[in-house]
Design a protein that fits this description.
The complex is a heterodimer of chains A (225) and B (738). Chain A has 225 residues and is an alpha/beta fold. Chain A is 35% helix and 28% strand. Chain A has a six-stranded mixed sheet, sandwiched between helices. In chain A, strands 2-1-4-5 form a four-stranded antiparallel sheet, with helices on one face. In chain A, helix 3 packs across helix 4, helix 3 packs parallel to helix 5 and helix 5 packs parallel to helix 6. Chain B is of the alpha+beta class. A six-stranded mixed sheet of chain B has the order 4-3-5-2-1-6. Chain B is elongated. About 2% of the residues of chain B have low confidence. Classes of the chains: A alpha/beta (225), B alpha+beta (738). Chains A and B meet through helix 2 and helix 3 of A and helix 1, helix 6 and helix 7 of B.
Chain lengths: 225, 738
């Protein structure tokens, strides 16, 4: 594994009386594609959300590029997510009111990039992800595979250091899912981005450099290296 | 952020635009109603200000003229009627060139001249002279200006006289200035308190409606903002986005509300809320009020939107991970208890204080606490309703509805809160009014309809000489439609009667027993005899004839002055007004007081009847707004729960089952909590009445029908909106995409 970019130590998280993570430990290297696997309810999505600064752990520590991020306030974590992370979820992450191109431009616009430059970069990614000609469509007018590719384009648009993907192919057929994964991993590698991928599908996990398994809130097994 | 928000709204396609338009329309309706509520009391006050001059007297509260620099003016104000319309008649006589001139006139009409309001001028022109114009001696010389008129339809005449003849009139004041102070309300302290309560009661459902309209499709907005939070929108930026989105719709709605207000204002001015219509300028907004509504409505909408987004700010995962809401417990009743206890203390204080400003504020504050208590207790009551449904009812619909009410009682109650508050306030006011009406009114005159009564020779009824009387009686007999004439004669002062009460006049009026029986007011044993009556109490029920101390032969009556008349007619307006005009014309110079049965009965409860009309209009309006709130809220709730409903449909639920779920989760809490609210309102009404040491009377049947009808109308409105929408949302074609 290369230098650690993202590290979690003893992360614990509960939702009310329901425990999700019990002292999970994990390290992700720079440029690595890591698959987090596990059965439903094992806590793998919660672990991803803690690593991405979406959720604050109840206990434990999370570091990104040497900086402890679990103690940052909400605003700082939001800026971190906007400027240095990208996200691809199973569904629901696109803004239905905005056309495809503006959905992709969104992180750049929020970061203060000029409209013209943002549009150019978005168009470039749309081409790359085989979405040419769809830029004026709204998310409701896309197929599942197209929606996920738009989400991947948006995740990549601000050249993030880490892409967090939570079941990115969960709602797709195997062929579309494979295509999305190939595009995601290729583009990430081109940008030297790290990918943290949550999935329960071995086929999807096979795209990763390394796999970990989360069971009962703990990172209980490592597969590969 | 503002640009992005505008892009999200305007670029969001048809659905976003429809949502914007519906929200804006809802806000517009609310804003327009608030504007009318805001101008209502200044407009009523304008009536009082312009009617102030009629109360001119020797000692004016706020003299318009410098009394040391004017000549005396003889002034008398009386009321007359034409049909069911009141005519205000002011007789004046200047005793010098510097006599004060009433508002709306350029100069005082001289002897043989009169000035009329535009409405009376039109009426005179459209009516035969012997029915109206002949009541006013002389020629019209001027049209009275708006400054002297309560409203454009008010009938006013100012009749000029020479001072010598006017001094012979009764009830004449010598004044040195015109009164400039507004009319003081005759409403007692209870009605003022109820008025304050009514305003709060009208405004609250409007506020609920504006909030409901703003929260329309809040779940959709939450999801959108959650998606934006994921890509890096900070909590502050999300808040700005929500504020801009809600604010844009609210600003558009408020602008539209002002436009609706301006468009409807001329028509609203024609509504005689207190008996008189308004000049459109009376409904003019002051800058402060306009600013308050212009800023307040968008602020309210933005606050409602921000409130609905609390959970989105917590996590970019949005609605997927909501913090569990604390379950409402019986402790929710505490605030209501505090409010009721405060009201119980504040009201008697206010009554003892004659409804002073500070005590009214105290009552209003405690009343607001009671209302806040109902709103706080509502979700707990909703849970109780849900539990009862699960315990008592069988079937999947009751189970789903009951579980939903238990799971999200706040949302369940929010839909019906406007209606529940409207029911509470309406019950309180309608529970108070019957008792106030009864205690404030006098017995109605029992004379048959179509009777004209007249006192001749001024209010003291000194009478007219027998020769003039004979001519008048002949003229009246000749009027088609007059069926019977009863002449009442003035007995000489030397004649006395056996007095039943010390205050009864010693010199009575006399009439034949047969005539007295014909009036149907009282009776006497010997139709052939002459009886003594108290002329001023002739209209009252318990006015037995008195026994004269000396017998009077019936033939003697024609030689005595004619002091009063009771004219029975066929009741047609033409007959009544011709009779009235003939009496006025015969008497000249306003020396008669003539009333029909309808005039007297109308005057008895005039103000309270107007108040009841005001309350009825407010009640209907409030229920209508609350019904709209319910419909919007139920429809919005359905859109937010589109997915679970669609999935239920896919899982095999029949459309009828889903319809029953939607109606059950609205109807059950609505009927139950509305019943509790009505009970609470009536209990408070009984308390209010007892605090006034008056016996409480339950509301009349009109209240129950208005209440039941209003709730049913609201339910029908929500069913008409929600059920077709439910059908569309859960059609198999739509559902399969969920």
């Amino acid at each position: 594994m290369t230098d650690a970019l993202l590290t979690a130590h003893g992360v614990t998280k509960s939702f009310g009386a329901t425990p999700a993570l019990h002292g999970a430990d994990i390290t992700v290297g720079t440029g690595e594609v890591l698959a987090i696997m596990g059965p439903s309810g094992s806590g793998k999505s919660t672990l991803l959300h803690c690593l991405a600064g979406i959720l604050r752990p109840d206990a434990g520590e999370v570091y990104f590029a040497g900086q402890r991020i679990d103690q940052l306030n909400e605003r700082a974590r939001t800026v971190l997510r906007r400027d240095r992370f990208g996200f691809v979820f199973q569904f629901g992450q696109l803004v239905p009111e905005l056309p495809v191109v503006e959905n992709v431009m969104l992180p750049l616009i929020l970061a203060g990039v000029r409209q013209a430059a943002a549009r150019l970069r978005a168009a470039e990614l749309l081409d790359r992800l085989e979405l040419t000609g769809l830029d004026a469509r709204r998310p409701g007018e896309l197929s599942g595979g197209q929606s996920q590719r738009v989400a991947v384009a948006r995740a990549l648009v601000s050249r993030p250091e880490v892409i967090f993907a939570d079941e990115p192919t969960g709602s797709l057929d195997s062929l579309s899912g494979q295509r999305v994964m190939d595009l995601l991993v290729d583009a990430a590698r081109d940008q030297a981005a790290t990918v943290v991928l949550v999935t329960h599908e071995a086929r999807v996990a096979a795209c990763a450099d390394r796999e970990v398994v989360v069971r009962d809130g703990r990172v209980s097994a490592l597969v590969g290296s | 952020m503002t640009r992005l928000a505008a892009r999200l709204i305007l670029g969001g396609g048809r659905e976003a635009l429809v949502r914007l338009v519906v929200t804006a329309l809802g806000v517009a309706l609310g804003a327009a109603l608030l504007l009318f509520a805001a101008v209502a009391f200044p407009a009523l006050h304008a009536h009082d200000v312009r009617a102030g001059w009629l109360h001119t007297g020797p000692h004016n509260v706020r003299p318009v003229q410098d009394e040391s620099a004017t000549d005396p003016l003889l002034f008398r104000w009386t009321t007359d009627h034409f049909g069911d319309q009141e005519i205000i008649r002011v007789d004046v006589a200047a005793e010098g060139p510097r006599a004060p001139v009433p508002p709306g006139l350029s100069r005082l009409p001289g002897p043989g001249q009169y000035a009329v309001s535009p409405a009376l001028a039109r009426l005179i022109a459209a009516t035969p002279a012997d029915m109206l114009a002949q009541r006013f001696p002389g020629q019209p010389v001027e049209t009275i200006g708006n400054a002297a008129l309560a409203g454009p339809e008010q009938l006013v005449v100012v009749v000029g006289h020479d001072p010598a003849s006017m001094r012979a009139f009764t009830g004449v004041d010598e004044v040195h200035s015109i009164e400039g102070a507004p009319v003081r309300h005759g409403y007692n302290e209870f009605l003022r308190i109820m008025l304050a309560v009514g305003i709060i009661g009208l405004i609250l459902p409007v506020i609920v409606f504006v909030s409901t309209a703003t929260r329309l499709a809040a779940a959709r907005r939450e999801q959108r903002l959650a998606a934006l939070r994921l890509v890096g929108v900070t909590p502050g930026q999300a808040s700005v986005l929500a504020a801009v989105e809600a604010g844009l719709a609210a600003v558009a709605g408020t602008v539209l509300g002002f436009a609706v207000f301006a468009a409807v204002r001329p028509y609203a001015a024609r509504i005689p809320f207190d008996g008189d219509t308004f000049f459109p300028t009376d409904l003019r907004l002051s800058g402060g009020l306009a600013l308050l509504v212009a800023l307040g409505v968008p602020a309210l909408a933005i606050a409602a939107a921000e409130l609905s987004l609390r959970r989105v700010r917590i996590s970019p995962l949005g609605v997927a991970r909501q913090a569990p809401r604390p379950r409402p417990t019986w402790r929710r009743l505490i605030l209501l208890g505090i409010g009721l206890a405060g009201f119980a203390v504040a009201l008697p204080v206010s009554v003892a204080d004659n409804g002073s400003q500070s005590s009214l504020v105290l009552v209003s504050v405690t009343f607001v606490v009671v209302i806040a208590g109902i709103v706080t207790a509502g979700p707990w009551l909703t849970i109780v309703v849900g539990q009862s449904m699960l315990r008592l009812l069988r079937g999947s619909s009751a189970m789903l509805a009951g579980r939903r009410l238990q799971d999200n009682p706040a949302a369940g109650f929010r839909s019906i809160s406007g209606l529940v508050l409207a029911v509470f306030v309406a019950s309180l006011i309608c529970g108070v009014l019957p008792s106030v009406m009864t205690s404030g009114s006098t017995k109605s005159i029992p004379q048959p309809a179509g009777t004209v009564s007249a006192l001749l020779g001024g209010r003291q009824a000194t009478g007219i000489d027998p020769a003039t009387a004979a001519a008048l009686l002949t003229r009246l007999h000749a009027i088609p439609g007059v069926t019977h004439l009863t002449a009442i004669r003035r007995a000489p002062d030397a004649w006395t009667v056996a007095q039943a009460e010390p205050h009864e006049p010693a010199a009575p009026a006399l009439m034949t027993c047969a005539d007295l029986i014909a009036t149907a007011v009282a009776t006497c044993p010997d139709p052939g005899s002459v009886v003594a009556v108290d002329l001023h109490l002739l209209g009252m029920v318990d006015n037995p004839s008195r026994t004269l101390t000396r017998p009077v032969p019936p033939g003697t009556l024609d030689t005595l002055p004619l002091a009063g008349l009771i004219v029975a007619t066929d009741g047609h307006t033409a007959t009544l007004e011709t009779t009235r005009t003939a009496i006025f014309a015969a008497m000249g110079e306003g020396q008669a007081s003539v009333d029909t049965t309808a005039d007297a009965n109308a005057e008895l409860n005039h103000r309270l009847i107007q108040l009841q009309r005001l309350v009825t209009v407010a009640l209907l309006l409030t229920l209508l707004i609350a019904g709209c709130s319910l419909a919007v809220s139920v429809a919005g709730g359905l859109v937010e729960r589109k997915r679970p409903f669609a999935l239920l449909r896919l899982a095999g639920a029949q459309p009828a089952d889903l319809r029953r779920v939607v109606m059950a989760e609205t109807t059950a809490p609505l009927l139950t909590i509305a019943l509790v609210s009505a009970g609470l309102g009536l209990a408070l009404a009984a308390f209010v009445i007892r605090a006034n040491h008056t016996a409480w009377k339950p509301p009349d049947p009109a209240y129950w029908s208005a209440l039941g009808g209003g709730i049913l109308l609201a339910l029908a409105l929500s069913a008409a909106t929600a059920l077709p929408l439910l059908g569309r949302l859960t059609s198999l074609h739509t559902a399969r995409f969920e």
